[in-house]
Amino acid sequence: MEFVISATNVDQLPESKAEIALVGRSNVGKSSLLNAVCNRKNLARVSNTPGRTQLINLFQTVSGGTVVDLPGYGYAAVAGKLKRGWEKMIVGYLNEREELDLILVLVDGVIGPTDLDLMMLEQLRASEVDFQIIATKHDKVKPSQRDTRKRDLAKNCEVDPTEVVWTSTSTNEGIEKVRSIINRVLK
Q1: Measured distance CA(154)–CA(34) in Å, rounded
Q2: Concatenated DSSP letters for 43-54?
Q3: What is the model's pTM?
Q4: pLDDT tens digit string along 71-112?
Q5: Least crowded by CB within 10 Å, which of 16, 144, 145, 186?
């Protein structure tokens, strides 16, 4: 996978034969997941500072498909005007991008879905866009709480627990499953 372009709006994006987007709140691990799936540490820029990804970033696969790393939503410390611009950019991309085949909705497995995550899922259901929930940071959930956390997260997201892919970029748990989802859609 190789970086193609960073853009501020959908009109700047090149055509793609197939596309998968990563969405989720700020600092949920979108860029880290992309790096882990590609076995590359620095393909997508990663930071401990929420809100680091500020543009629509496109990465092209060998097959010609595209993976899109979107800015995170919900980071309160960003100036209001900039935050509204990001939200407009994300919604514009999700509503206008005809090439979009699947959205990977990343939810923090430690804290569970936020109100913004649930609003995103509601919007995706209403627009009938295919999506897959990816729970991140599974290694940070205490082993004694994992089964309960899995059930609760799935219930809050209104999906069957078997439909959620649990991942950890630290232990590589679930990374192969995400890789196979991407390869299947972008083949």
Answers
A1: 23
A2: SS---SSTT---
A3: 0.87
A4: 888 664 555 555 465 566 777 788 888 899 999 999 999 999
A5: 144
